[in-house]
Amino acid sequence: MAGDAPWYEAAHVVGSTNALNVVADGLEGCLPPVDPAAASDDVRVVLADIRSFYGLGPGAEVPMPFRLVAHDPGYLGDLWSAVRRAFDDNRLSRRLKEALAFAVSLTTRSAFGTPFHLGEMRRLGVGDRGIVEIVGVTQMFSSYTKIADTLQLESDMGDIAPVDPTPAPGRA
Fold this sequence. Notes:
By secondary structure, the chain is mainly α. The protein has a single domain (about 1-150), classed as Up-down Bundle (AhpD-like), CATH 1.20.1290. Helices cover about 60% and strands about 0% of the residues. It is built from 7 helices and no strands. The protein has helices spanning about 5-25, 40-55, 65-70, 75-85, 95-105, 115-125, 130-150. The model has no long low-confidence stretch (mean pLDDT about 90).
């Protein structure tokens, strides 16, 4: 099971990216983001941690999804905890995780996620060639998936990679 840990880590990044994109793309324009200056102390503590994690200066705005869910401090804390855990360096580097999040955001056409994760990749040192490579790989796999879906193809990988009945790490 230890050999599967990077896959679980990648899956956590994909899920957390999707969560951020759904919140930002779904709620932006529906309710105003919380003004950090007017927020409660517990919300300000979480927003400060987010600001630090993303390398934002004191005047920079915290990413939109967090300011939108800050109307519910518990939700903000839970969402931030999951995102922080997903994107912290572990077996996979933060740069790789941001590339994965960018790919997820591209394929889901997230108005928030695509520019946000592109900015994070650039901040973490990914240059133009790296970004083009990520777009190329994403485009290739997205195209193959669309073709397979259109043709309603069944997977032929069952014998190569049978279903693993063991529980996910941390589950009994």
